[in-house]
Amino acid sequence: MEIRNSTVVTEFILIGLAQSQDIQLLVFVLILIFYLIILPGNFLIIFTIRSDPGLSAPLYFFLGNLAFLDASYSFIVAPRMLADFLTEKKVISYKGCITQLFFLHFLGGGEGLLLAVMAFDRYMAICRPLHYSTLMNPRVCYALLLALWFGGFVHSIIQVVLILRLPFCGPNQLDNFFCDVPQVIKLACTDTFVVELLMVFNSGLLTLLCFLGLLVSYAVILCHVHRSSSEAKNKALSTCTTHIIIIFLMFGPAIFIYTRPFRALPADKVVSFFHTVIFPLMNPVIYTLRNQEVKSSMRRLLGRHVVC
After folding, report:
1. Which residues of 213-244 are buried (b: 16+ CB within 10 A; e: fewer)?
2. pLDDT in tens, 228-254
3. Across residues 84-108, what is the average pLDDT?
4. CA–CA gap between residue 308 and residue 243 (Å, rounded)
5. Distance set, CA 245 to CA 250, 272, 283, 284 (Å)
6. CB 44 within 8 A of CB 298
7. Taking phi first (over 0 means left), then psi (-120 to 50 degrees means alpha), and beta for anything else, what does residue 16 get?
8. What pLDDT is attached to residue 230?
9. Gyration radius of the chain's alpha carbons
10. Any idea what the Cα angle at residue 109 is, between residues 289 and 43, rounded to 5°?
């Protein structure tokens, strides 16, 4: 009997991050604090960059977009997770699950490509300074931004199409606190070996190659920096170190989750929690704390509003 596309399951039950009430309360408070403090900070970064003409360089243009992507990314999982802490039965509809999965990979894929664009921007600024202003003009920056959004969409739609072709006709308990590819695939009532390989190639291999490519690019930049003057060297080292920290925060958990066969490990939920909730809120803040120009602009902006 043909069962392809014969989806019967209309909802999934999320087991959640932990069964202990004490742990759930601790996580609830932690996420709430992050939302009340750091999320407004991300929007402040965006507003500061948009309102200060002195922050018109491509570096700040891309930093503002990183803050927007991360703020948007944080809305995919965390709000529903907070609501689920207050209910006994954690349920998400089939369509809601697919929608969550789509935006998770759409924004996540776009952010990975944005980090690659930011690495290219730093390479041109440090290694090819004479060509930088000519090549990295506003038209090119917007074209790169459009390309990374399109790349994130293609990456995500491939995931969704492969999952939509799977039949779900039996178990509907997801051993996680949100919908993601590894857990959803395992609930399909058919052989998923080929689909898993395609998913690993689309997410895992792509993530690993981007990660290695970024490390190589920053290694080239740092080698070039050592031949620069002391002042330029310190500024470039500060910027590149920040970028490398974000790369590890972004790609480390993603490599752990997507580059291996979809088998459950004890650390999966903890890694997913930091990957989808904590790190996205922290990334732009880390950039800002190490960038004197943005910090000075934020102080001036806040000072003007306090005076008013």
Report:
1. ebeebbeebbeebeeeeeeebeebeebbebbb
2. 666 667 777 777 888 888 888 889 999
3. 91
4. 36
5. 9, 18, 9, 11
6. yes
7. left
8. 65
9. 21
10. 35
pLDDT above 90: percentage of residues in the chain: 22
Asked if 196 and 261 count as a contact pair (C-beta separation under 8 A), the reply is: yes
- Burial code (b: 16+ CB inside 10 Å, e: under 16) for 272-286 equals bbebbbbbbbbbbbe
How does DSSP classify residue 53? G
Q: Which of 207, 295, 246 is nearest to 119 (CA)?
A: 246
- Could you report how far apart the first and last alpha carbons of the chain are, in Å? 72
| Burial environment of residue 247 by CB neighbours within 10 A (0 to 12, 13 to 18, 19 or more) | buried
> Which phi and psi (to 5°) does residue 137 adopt?
-85, 165
- List Cβ neighbours of 167 (8 Å cut-off, separation of 6 or more): 3, 4, 5, 6, 7, 8, 188, 189, 190
Task: Note the pLDDT tens digit of each residue in 46-89.
Answer: 888 888 888 889 989 998 998 899 888 888 988 888 888 888 78
Measure the CA–CA gap between 81 and 28, rounded to whole angstroms.
8
Please give the single-letter amino acid code of residue 128.
R
Q: In the predicted model, what is the mean pLDDT of the chain?
A: 85
Q: What pLDDT is recorded for position 232?
A: 64
Dist CA 195 CA 152 (whole Å) = 20
Q: Which helix (H) or strand (E) holds 13?
A: strand 11-14
pLDDT digits (tens, 9 = 90+) for 138-147: 999 999 999 9
Q: What DSSP string runs through 191-213?
A: --HHHHHHHIIIIIIHHHHHHHH
CA dihedral 235, 244, 125, 131 (to 10 degrees): 160
Window from 116-120, 154-158, 263-267, 294-298 with minimum mean pLDDT: 263-267
